[in-house]
Design brief:
With about 220 residues, the protein is of the alpha/beta class. It folds into 2 domains: about 45 residues; about 150 residues, Rossmann fold. The chain has 8 helices and 4 strands, in the order H-H-H-H-E-H-E-H-E-H-E-H. It has a 4-stranded parallel sheet with strand order 2-1-3-4, with helices on both faces. Helix 2 crosses helix 3, helix 3 crosses helix 4 and helix 6 runs parallel beside helix 7. The radius of gyration is 21 Å and the shape is globular. The two termini are about 15 Å apart.
Length: about 220
Amino acid sequence: MTDVAFTCAKCGAESCAHEQKAFPQNCMTVKALEKHILEDALKEYETDAEVLAIARAAAAVEAEYYCKATRAEEIVHFAIKMNYKRIGIATCGGLLEETHIFARVLEAAGLIPVGVVCKTGRIDKKNIGVPEEGKVRPGCFESMCNPVLQAMMLNDENTDLNVVVGLCVGHDSLFMKYSKAPVTTFITKDRVLAHNPAGALYLSKNYYKRMLEKKEP
């Protein structure tokens, strides 16, 4: 695989956020214009009423509560602006206490929380081909995380918006893939950093500098 010529991950110009600044070489905005991807994206806002409504509601929450509301509050404000009522919560079993509190926050705002925990279904990991040595506790019954089932259960509950609370890397991907309702994230799991994954980046020059070391393929 060749290196990606266009990437915002290494750009510091931020020309896309400032009207008068010139675009740097290999800019994603330039690529979007040349390949008509920008045009295609704008058509989605024009032709899909839900896409346009979500975009407008998100912009309104950003403008009204910029640096004022917490993530939990922003989710509530967004749901209300979208006239959502039933809020699905796809939660990790290790964050049930946080989910209980978040559900109370939703209820206080007049919303209806519908939670489904990751271990729902109680299926041993061996049923999807995970060997005993691949378990956290080999030799024991170990219920698999089942994000596909979580999504299907919330689809069956006709939720208007689904919120991810601490699903594992990959499990969150599957949940988003199968969810019919729009999905947002409340808590991102990081068992080492108290669910603050950005902390590793802030400490990448000292405690977590190992992350920047070249790895053997």
